[in-house]
Amino acid sequence: MRIRFRLEAAEDVEGARAWYDEQQSGLGDAFVASLENVIDLVAEFPEAFPEIAAGHRRAHLHRFPYAVYYRLDSGVIDVLACLHSSRSPEVWRPRRPD
Predict the structure, then answer these.
(1) What is the rounded distance in angstroms from the CA atom of residue 59 to the CA atom of residue 69?
(2) CATH topology of domain 2-95
(3) Average pLDDT of the chain?
(4) How many C-beta atoms surround the C-beta of residue 98 within 10 A?
């Protein structure tokens, strides 16, 4: 399946990567690798992750306290957000294209 990152989701990832790199050199790369692993799983099994709102799903990263929020849109995985688990899940809702 094709993956499409919304601009806001890409900004989420870049912000998290930069923060992790400030904490320890190379940790940002580890974060991105963890994200890529989860995205690969989502691409292979898009409906395996829990639906948290009508048509919207969430997949948690391993090792890092982040989750990817996405929806399926005509054979495309539309990534809406990548947020720290301590943030309110309501942050991604305004990003929905409903």
Answers:
(1) 7
(2) YaeB-like fold (3.30.2310)
(3) 91
(4) 8
Locate the domains of the chain by residue range: 2-95
> Taking the model in full, what pTM does it have?
0.89
Q: Work out the end-to-end distance of the chain between its first and last CA atoms, rounded to an integer number of angstroms.
A: 22
Of 84, 65, 54, 57, nearest in space to 1 by CA: 57
Instruction: Specify the pLDDT at position 59.
Output: 97
Place of tokens 């849109």: 73
> Residue 23: in which H helix or E strand, if any?
helix 7-23
98 CB-near residues (< 8 Å, 6+ apart)? none
70, 84 contact by CB (below 8 A): no
The answer to whether the beta carbons of residues 43 and 15 sit under 8 Å apart is no
Statement: residue 76 has pLDDT above 80: yes
Question: For residue range 36-72, what is the model confidence (pLDDT) as tens digits?
Answer: 999 999 999 999 999 998 889 999 999 999 999 999 9
Question: 77 - beta bridge partners?
Answer: 3, 72
